[in-house]
């Protein structure tokens, strides 16, 4: 009986601490509306000049798992519209991928917004990578109620409880993000997330900081000179992404 009461207290405290109480708040959220077509996709592919064996070779999952090879180099100077980039990203990340229903909208002065849905596969990836555990630790450290429990519970067990809870509520939920993109060198960019929501629930700054850090590490690990990237100019203006530099001439998927 004592174990049952203790478990119920943990669950209640976690619900309060994470602040994700109502299903409708999580299952509905702001969507970025971009009406793209196959024509936008074809135009985008043409502009990049990259030969791709299969668009799913550049899915988030393949890029995360390094299941691709990039060869050669092409010089480009192009403007990409929101429709064109949404067509590319959505086509690469469709059914069975880590994320889906992706839309990307460019604004002014290097700002933009995106919305997508995360799959259970993506949540599993976040758990395996330790990102959800980092978020759970932040919640434990920054919440007085959970800190009290941490004094009596095993820190490892409590972290596992919070991690599993976050994972359970994140499955197949809509995500909205707004932020800023800027070039910092020939092969690095800076990404500043100003707003991040799961459903209608705004994520706290400590969670945003973790996500921001991981996104920057991931993107900069891809846009290397070895992969054919050189960024001379990069900016968002008038609702379009301007890119001047080089891209890989060819990308192929690698079966593993």
Topology:
Layout: H1 2-18, H2 23-27, H3 38-48, E1 51-52, H4 60-64, E2 68-71, E3 74-81, H5 82-92, E4 99-106, E5 111-118, H6 120-129, H7 131-141, H8 144-150, H9 155-170, E6 174-185, E7 188-198, E8 201-202, H10 205-222, E9 230-237, E10 240-247, E11 250-253
Parallel strand pairs: 1-11
Antiparallel strand pairs: 2-11, 3-10, 4-5, 5-6, 6-7, 7-8, 9-10
Helix pairs in contact: 1-9, 3-5, 6-9, 7-9, 7-10
Structure write-up:
- With 256 residues, this protein is α+β, with helices and mostly antiparallel strands.
- 43% of the residues lie in helices and 29% in strands.
- It has helices at 2-18, 23-27, 38-48, 60-64, 82-92, 120-129, 131-141, 144-150, 155-170, 205-222; strands spanning 51-52, 68-71, 74-81, 99-106, 111-118, 174-185, 188-198, 201-202, 230-237, 240-247, 250-253.
- The strands form 3 sheets. It has a 5-stranded antiparallel sheet. Strands 1-11-2 form a 3-stranded mixed sheet, with no helix packed on it.
- A hairpin with a 2-residue loop joins β6 (174-185) and β7 (188-198).
- α6 runs antiparallel to α9, α7 packs across α9 and α7 (131-141) runs antiparallel to α10.
């Amino acid at each position: 009986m004592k174990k049952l009461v203790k478990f119920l207290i943990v669950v209640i405290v976690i619900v309060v601490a994470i602040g994700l109480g109502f299903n409708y708040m999580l299952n509905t959220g702001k969507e970025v509306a971009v009406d793209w077509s196959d024509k936008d996709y074809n135009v985008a592919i043409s502009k990049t000049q990259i030969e791709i064996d299969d668009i799913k070779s550049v899915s988030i999952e393949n890029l995360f798992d390094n299941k691709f090879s990039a060869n050669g180099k092409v010089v480009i100077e192009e403007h990409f519209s929101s429709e064109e980039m949404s067509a590319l990203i959505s086509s690469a990340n469709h059914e069975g991928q880590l994320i889906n229903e992706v839309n990307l909208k460019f604004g002014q002065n290097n700002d933009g917004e995106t919305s997508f849905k995360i799959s259970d596969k993506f949540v599993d990836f976040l758990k395996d990578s330790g990102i959800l555990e980092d978020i759970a630790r932040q919640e434990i450290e920054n919440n007085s109620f959970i800190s009290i429990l941490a004094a009596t519970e095993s820190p490892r067990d409590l972290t596992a409880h919070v991690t599993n809870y976050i994972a359970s509520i994140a499955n197949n939920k809509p995500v909205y993000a707004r932020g800023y993109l800027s070039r910092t060198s020939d092969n690095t960019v800076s990404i500043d997330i100003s707003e991040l929501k799961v459903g209608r629930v705004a994520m706290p700054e400590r969670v945003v900081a973790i996500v921001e850090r991981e996104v920057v590490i991931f993107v900069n690990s891809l846009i290397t000179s070895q992969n054919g990237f050189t960024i001379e100019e990069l900016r968002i203006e008038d609702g379009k992404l301007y890119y001047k530099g080089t891209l890989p001439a060819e990308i192929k998927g690698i079966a593993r």
